[in-house]
Amino acid sequence: MAESGLIIVDKPAEWTSHDVVGKMRRVAGTRRVGHAGTLDPMATGVLVVGVEKATRLLGHLALTEKVYEATIRLGVRTSTDDAEGEVLGTTPAGQVAMEAIQAGVAGLTGPIMQVPPQVSAIKVNGERAYKRARAGEDVELAARPVTVHGFDVTDVRVHDDVVDVDATVRCSSGTYIRSLARDLGDGLGVGGHLTYLRRTRVGPYDLSMARTIEQLVDSCVILPIGEAVSAAFPRIDVTDEQARVVSHGGRLAAAGLGAGPIGVFGPDGALLALAEESGRALKPLAVFV
What we know:
Largest sheet: 10 strands, mixed
Oligomer: single chain
Number of strands: 19
Strand content: 35-45%
Shape: elongated
Distance between the termini: 15 Å
Order of helices and strands: EHEEHEEEHEEEHEEHEEHEHEHEEEE
Number of helices: 8
Radius of gyration: 21 Å
């Protein structure tokens, strides 16, 4: 059996997240592989892949904060809100002032209501929105609450009628950078779309920990499941008796660590479970022994 843990992949462009999972199944020698947080084919960067028991962590890891480097092109609207879609219209943007761009970015920072792209994996009446959109249907998606913790412009380049805005975005789970590009352009009255996206961090896992597909084929580096949990979540270490209770799915007294998953480790340092506090109890979410 393959070791349980995480593989931090530096996803290449043109690969789907599913492509990466398929490759990692062959590399790790197991079918029990999944990923946390989809990256579009155009995007590159950190994709967290779980192997064996660590697949049970992925839903929790997908909810952590993410950081991206992005380039937004002002002056061109597309059907997908990124460079892979059809051009829907152009508006000269060369006259847009830096002050206006900064004001637009500020308006998209903090808690916001965001409409996802029509071409997204969100389900509408049981079917993925992108399938309906590609079939020619005009898909209307409801705005969702997300939080953009930071939206920092790092460079602005004017190319005749279009303007490229480089930015670093730090955001909550569920935030679409394509939608930020669209909304920034719409707010400035010139339209916009995403031309470049690289995810640099998912929770505590960043590019310094990531390996390319080629590197992983040569040497598959798996972050052990205990280390993965310690890096991502608060931890508590329990006694032998408490370990026995947790190992059978029982509850412990709350540790006062607040909301969110907590790693529970035995006296020998081995990961026992992922748990959450509910009232005065610490309730297991997933048991690993």
